[in-house]
């Protein structure tokens, strides 16, 4: 499309606004902003603007003029009453250029490209298209990746910048159950809304590569990867304890269970064993750890991943169970310990409530209390059970076990702070040297025996455990083991050596990382490509040629209530035959979890239309690895861990849970290492650089405290009082007093000021659609980058966006000129074709250098500051040369692409600037242009002057003669000679008589 054909535009007249405060600075009246309270009027204006846009496409100029005149008069009348105006016509510019980019496929990366050019693959974490749409926190990372993508295109890179949808999952299914609407309908509707919102923000995604996990063409390859795992024994079935929600009729991941109820709906959740598909992720634990060192990731993220993998070296020991007569039964309990040196201090064993041996250990008199405790523990999540601050609970099983190193009979307890999924599901409890065991033993009056002391110190019952290493004491027996006096490390090695010789244990490496639950008893997910023979229940994988196994259409996808998945209702789909033997068979009716399809999406973006293979080797080799991967820090630990072990994506959990040191979601992921092993991918790691953007919190909320009688009290009084009520106070009734906020009408009442994460329940969600309507997409983009460093959390403040909006308005007027009397702007510009001055070039190239450096360092806020400084300087110039202005527009374009495209067009260009070369700073203009030159009179320094670096002797002397301090030595005096060293010194030698006069003067 020729840009000259896009000149038809409309103009709306606005009235001048009063000054607006931006932070602590009172900005002068410029082109104004919308009042955020004018939503009804804005809606009307938006409708009228639509009429104008339609009018622009009308070839009948008379009709266009009449409509525009009518609408302009109506809007002028409205705006005269409301006193608002726009800083620049973003409402015309932005839709125009979004349409241009779409019509011309501006950002499409063709399949066939020049692979000799450098590549840049920049990726956003896969979004889940919820019905709520975007809030202003979402575009933070998206804007950052878009700036990088636009910058790299202008630097000559092939840029891959795609977008797609993680579209299967429980939320859509639950909404479908509640409304009777098929999840496919609601999901596609949500996707459409998300897509529209993203396009309205001007993101330069290659929409030709858009993918969605719910499309059979996509999940065919999700199923294919599962078959590869199955072939290699990395996918298997096992009976494992799961979070079962009877009301939802499905297994839930740990992060979907909060305080014993489902996160969605608040339904009771219990733990019960079920036959489930699992992934053997633990096979890759060591490789995941080893490869972390070479990654350009935040160290905090790498440390969290190391902690989550949780590799530890220790010993596996066997404790034999005793009968009522104290004799050994044919049952041994295996425990894993990282501290074999403390085994003489073990005074009891603890078994997890779900341990498979527990039913055979509880005595008749204890069976009721143990069973009740098991039922109680089944309602708790793993996070609740392992929380360090919670009170420890447990019950005695009635049985005892023999400590293998000293023959002592110790009681076997059941306690939920031990998990069946970690280690062996049983521990030896050493209360003197483990904090949890100490609390438990103290509560239930179990003996505490000290067996390790700090070097050179004696230790008694100090009221707390000593978990550190030291010198071993009280640790010898007639069983041939004596470790007294050894260091903890020496003692641990000797215990393991003794255990291996006696057959009571062995050295063992263990991981917190466990194999991952794969199946979900849901409808809205990828079908698992496995059938089971009716007569033998043998599992048989489908042939790869039979993929995709399509999800059947169901009218009733509600839970069965029996534990059978909803797919069991599709009887004609479930009943099938084994293609080889012809025997009757049935399909697997569990589906893959939501994260299945989002575990490898970034690979598919490289080759989204390939029907023959997951990704062509040539394309994968060129585009891999992802150069920059941006997403929220709340996704960092497991998302990145399993997008390495597997390309896994979006999972939902609370950041506060991570701070407690334990998080155990029950979803699965595709081992990326497996894909590497079988030659699908060419790199060991999928992501070269990971950036975690901060969270945008809602606007600060002010709360006043009240006592039990409803009287207002100051916040410090409420803190000492304990329980109290709170009431939200409108911002207009609040003033700042020192570092605090107080009531305007009563400064003695200090308020609680706090910003919260955006959520519907708090009513602090800001819709980006509203912001775009009032300020424009470029303003939103700039503000989100200007709020602070990308990686920091920030608080939304509407007055802040007004400030960057005014900056864009000033930029617009600098180049286009002041508005015409009717409030519209001319079509051209006010730039001149004359050569820029050295000072103008110096300002420009300093800006180029700073903006380039800050984009490359993802310090976008300081890059914007540099552009603001440039505009401030440029307003002081009498004329604005084209060379300088065009270069600045290119600098602005990654941040504010709509305005930049329009300015570029009005400057006379007929092609988009998306692929124009990004400006390069000339080093010669980055040096300081002036130097401080010492001036001597007869060899004695009398002062200094500021001169150009290449200043001549005559110019330097003239400046010295004009200097207030130096002139008294020079003016009217006879000069014998001048000694000038360029850039170093000026020495003026006076004749003898003048020198005396000069000294006296």
Automatic annotation (TrEMBL):
<comment type="similarity">
    <text>Belongs to the class-I aminoacyl-tRNA synthetase family.</text>
</comment>
<dbReference type="InterPro" id="IPR014729">
    <property type="entry name" value="Rossmann-like_a/b/a_fold"/>
</dbReference>
<dbReference type="GO" id="GO:0005739">
    <property type="term" value="C:mitochondrion"/>
</dbReference>
<dbReference type="InterPro" id="IPR025709">
    <property type="entry name" value="Leu_tRNA-synth_edit"/>
</dbReference>
<dbReference type="GO" id="GO:0048608">
    <property type="term" value="P:reproductive structure development"/>
</dbReference>
<dbReference type="Pfam" id="PF13603">
    <property type="entry name" value="tRNA-synt_1_2"/>
</dbReference>
<dbReference type="GO" id="GO:0002161">
    <property type="term" value="F:aminoacyl-tRNA deacylase activity"/>
</dbReference>
<feature type="domain" description="Methionyl/Leucyl tRNA synthetase">
    <location>
        <begin position="125"/>
        <end position="257"/>
    </location>
</feature>
<keyword id="KW-0648">Protein biosynthesis</keyword>
<dbReference type="Pfam" id="PF00133">
    <property type="entry name" value="tRNA-synt_1"/>
</dbReference>
<feature type="compositionally biased region" description="Basic and acidic residues">
    <location>
        <begin position="572"/>
        <end position="589"/>
    </location>
</feature>
<dbReference type="Pfam" id="PF08264">
    <property type="entry name" value="Anticodon_1"/>
</dbReference>
<keyword id="KW-0067">ATP-binding</keyword>
<dbReference type="GO" id="GO:0005829">
    <property type="term" value="C:cytosol"/>
</dbReference>
<keyword id="KW-0547">Nucleotide-binding</keyword>
<dbReference type="GO" id="GO:0004823">
    <property type="term" value="F:leucine-tRNA ligase activity"/>
</dbReference>
<dbReference type="InterPro" id="IPR002300">
    <property type="entry name" value="aa-tRNA-synth_Ia"/>
</dbReference>
<dbReference type="Pfam" id="PF09334">
    <property type="entry name" value="tRNA-synt_1g"/>
</dbReference>
<dbReference type="InterPro" id="IPR009008">
    <property type="entry name" value="Val/Leu/Ile-tRNA-synth_edit"/>
</dbReference>
<feature type="region of interest" description="Disordered">
    <location>
        <begin position="560"/>
        <end position="589"/>
    </location>
</feature>
<dbReference type="GO" id="GO:0009791">
    <property type="term" value="P:post-embryonic development"/>
</dbReference>
<dbReference type="InterPro" id="IPR001412">
    <property type="entry name" value="aa-tRNA-synth_I_CS"/>
</dbReference>
<feature type="domain" description="Leucyl-tRNA synthetase editing">
    <location>
        <begin position="306"/>
        <end position="499"/>
    </location>
</feature>
<keyword id="KW-0436">Ligase</keyword>
<keyword id="KW-0030">Aminoacyl-tRNA synthetase</keyword>
<dbReference type="InterPro" id="IPR015413">
    <property type="entry name" value="Methionyl/Leucyl_tRNA_Synth"/>
</dbReference>
<dbReference type="InterPro" id="IPR013155">
    <property type="entry name" value="M/V/L/I-tRNA-synth_anticd-bd"/>
</dbReference>
<dbReference type="GO" id="GO:0005524">
    <property type="term" value="F:ATP binding"/>
</dbReference>
<dbReference type="InterPro" id="IPR009080">
    <property type="entry name" value="tRNAsynth_Ia_anticodon-bd"/>
</dbReference>
<feature type="domain" description="Aminoacyl-tRNA synthetase class Ia">
    <location>
        <begin position="755"/>
        <end position="785"/>
    </location>
</feature>
<protein>
    <recommendedName>
        <fullName>leucine--tRNA ligase</fullName>
        <ecNumber>6.1.1.4</ecNumber>
    </recommendedName>
</protein>
<feature type="domain" description="Methionyl/Valyl/Leucyl/Isoleucyl-tRNA synthetase anticodon-binding">
    <location>
        <begin position="841"/>
        <end position="950"/>
    </location>
</feature>
<dbReference type="InterPro" id="IPR002302">
    <property type="entry name" value="Leu-tRNA-ligase"/>
</dbReference>
<dbReference type="GO" id="GO:0006429">
    <property type="term" value="P:leucyl-tRNA aminoacylation"/>
</dbReference>
């Amino acid at each position: 499309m020729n840009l000259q054909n896009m000149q038809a535009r409309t103009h709306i007249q606005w009235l001048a606004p009063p000054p607006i405060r931006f932070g602590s600075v009172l900005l002068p009246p410029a082109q104004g902003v919308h009042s955020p309270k004018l939503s009804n009027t804005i809606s009307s204006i938006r409708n009228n603007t639509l009429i104008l846009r339609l009018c622009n496409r009308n070839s009948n100029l008379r009709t266009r003029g009449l409509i525009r005149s009518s609408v302009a008069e109506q809007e002028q009348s409205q705006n005269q009453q409301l006193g608002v105006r726009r800083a620049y016509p973003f409402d015309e510019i932005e839709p125009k250029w979004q349409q241009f980019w779409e019509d011309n496929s501006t950002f499409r990366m063709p399949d066939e490209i020049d692979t000799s050019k450098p590549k840049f693959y920049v990726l956003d974490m896969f979004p889940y298209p919820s019905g709520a749409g975007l809030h202003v926190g979402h575009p933070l990372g998206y804007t950052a990746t878009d700036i990088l993508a636009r910058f790299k295109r202008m630097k000559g890179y092939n840029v891959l910048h795609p977008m797609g949808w993680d579209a299967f999952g429980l939320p859509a299914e639950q909404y479908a159950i509640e409304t009777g609407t098929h999840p496919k309908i609601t999901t596609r509707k949500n996707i459409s809304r998300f897509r529209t919102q993203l396009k309205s923000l001007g993101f330069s995604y290659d929409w030709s590569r858009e993918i969605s996990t719910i499309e059979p063409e996509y999940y065919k390859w999700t199923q294919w990867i599962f078959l590869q795992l199955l072939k290699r024994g990395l996918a298997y079935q096992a009976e494992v304890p799961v979070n079962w929600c009877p009301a939802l009729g499905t297994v839930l991941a740990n992060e979907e269970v909060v305080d014993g109820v489902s996160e969605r709906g608040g339904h009771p959740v219990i733990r019960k064993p079920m036959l489930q598909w699992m992934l053997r992720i633990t096979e890759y634990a060591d490789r995941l750890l080893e490869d972390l060192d070479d990654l350009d990731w935040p160290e905090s993220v790498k440390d969290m991943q190391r902690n989550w993998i949780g590799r530890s070296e220790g010993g596996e020991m066997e404790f034999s169970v005793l009968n009522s007569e104290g004799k050994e039964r044919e049952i041994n309990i295996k425990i894993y310990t990282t501290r074999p040196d403390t085994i003489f201090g073990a005074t009891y064993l603890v078994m997890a409530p779900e341990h498979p041996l527990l039913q055979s250990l509880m005595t008749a008199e204890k069976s009721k209390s143990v069973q009740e405790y098991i039922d109680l523990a089944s309602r708790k999540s793993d996070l609740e059970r392992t929380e360090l601050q919670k009170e420890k609970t447990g019950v005695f099983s009635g049985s005892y076990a023999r400590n293998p190193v000293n023959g002592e009979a110790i009681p076997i307890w059941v306690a939920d702070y031990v998990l069946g999924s970690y280690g062996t599901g049983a521990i030896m409890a050493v209360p003197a040297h483990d904090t949890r065991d100490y609390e438990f033993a103290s509560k239930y009056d179990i003996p505490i025996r000290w067996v390790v002391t700090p070097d050179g110190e004696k230790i008694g019952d100090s009221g707390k455990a000593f978990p550190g290493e030291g010198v071993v004491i009280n640790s010898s027996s007639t069983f041939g083991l004596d470790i007294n006096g050894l260091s903890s490390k020496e003692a641990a090695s000797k215990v393991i050596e003794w255990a291996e010789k006696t057959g009571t244990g062995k050295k063992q490496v263990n991981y917190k990382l466990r194999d991952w639950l794969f199946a979900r008893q849901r409808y809205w997910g990828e079908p698992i490509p496995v059938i089971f023979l009716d007569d033998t229940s043998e599992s048989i994988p489908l042939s790869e040629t039979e993929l995709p196994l399509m999800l059947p259409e169901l009218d009733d996808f509600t839970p069965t209530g029996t534990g059978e998945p909803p797919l069991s209702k599709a009887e004609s789909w479930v009943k099938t035959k084994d293609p080889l033997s012809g025997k009757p068979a049935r399909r697997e009716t569990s589906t893959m979890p939501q994260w299945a399809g989002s575990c490898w999406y970034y690979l598919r973006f490289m080759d989204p239309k390939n029907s023959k293979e997951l990704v062509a080797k040539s394309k994968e080799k060129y585009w891999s690895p992802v150069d920059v991967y941006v997403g929220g820090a709340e996704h960092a630990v497991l998302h990145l861990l399993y997008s390495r072990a597997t390309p896994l994506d979006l999972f939902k959990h609370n950041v506060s849970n991570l701070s407690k040191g334990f998080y155990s979601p029950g979803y699965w992921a595709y081992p990326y290492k497996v894909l590497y092993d079988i030659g699908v991918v060419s790199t060991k790691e999928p992501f070269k650089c990971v950036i975690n953007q901060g969270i945008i919190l809602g606007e600060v909320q002010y709360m006043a405290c009240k006592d039990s009688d409803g009287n207002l009290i100051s916040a410090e009084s409420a803190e000492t009082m304990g329980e109290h009520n709170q009431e939200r106070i409108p911002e207009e009734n609040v003033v700042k007093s020192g570092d605090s906020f107080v009531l305007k009408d009563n400064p003695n009442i200090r308020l609680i000021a706090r910003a919260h994460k955006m959520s519907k329940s708090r009513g602090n969600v800001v819709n980006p659609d509203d912001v775009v309507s009032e300020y424009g997409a470029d303003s939103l983009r700039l503000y989100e980058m200007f709020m602070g460093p990308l990686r920091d959390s920030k608080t939304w403040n509407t007055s802040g966006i007004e400030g960057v909006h005014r900056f864009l308005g000033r930029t617009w007027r600098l180049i286009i000129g002041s508005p015409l009397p009717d409030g519209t702007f001319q079509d051209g510009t006010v730039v001149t074709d004359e050569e820029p001055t050295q000072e103008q070039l110096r300002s420009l190239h300093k800006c180029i250098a700073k903006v380039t450096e800050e984009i490359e360092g993802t310090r976008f806020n300081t890059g914007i500051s540099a552009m603001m400084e440039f505009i401030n300087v440029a307003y002081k110039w009498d004329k604005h040369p084209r060379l300088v202005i065009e270069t600045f527009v290119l600098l602005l374009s990654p941040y504010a692409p709509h305005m930049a495209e329009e300015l570029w067009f009005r400057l006379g260009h007929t092609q988009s600037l998306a692929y124009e070369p990004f400006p390069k700073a000339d080093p010669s203009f980055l040096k300081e242009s002036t130097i401080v030159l010492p001036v001597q009179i007869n060899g004695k320094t009398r002062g200094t002057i500021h001169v150009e670096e290449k200043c001549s002797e005559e110019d330097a002397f003239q400046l010295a003669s004009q200097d207030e301090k130096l002139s008294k030595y020079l003016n009217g005096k006879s000069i014998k000679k001048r000694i000038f060293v360029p850039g170093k010194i000026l020495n003026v030698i006076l004749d003898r008589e003048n020198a005396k006069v000069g000294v006296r003067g």
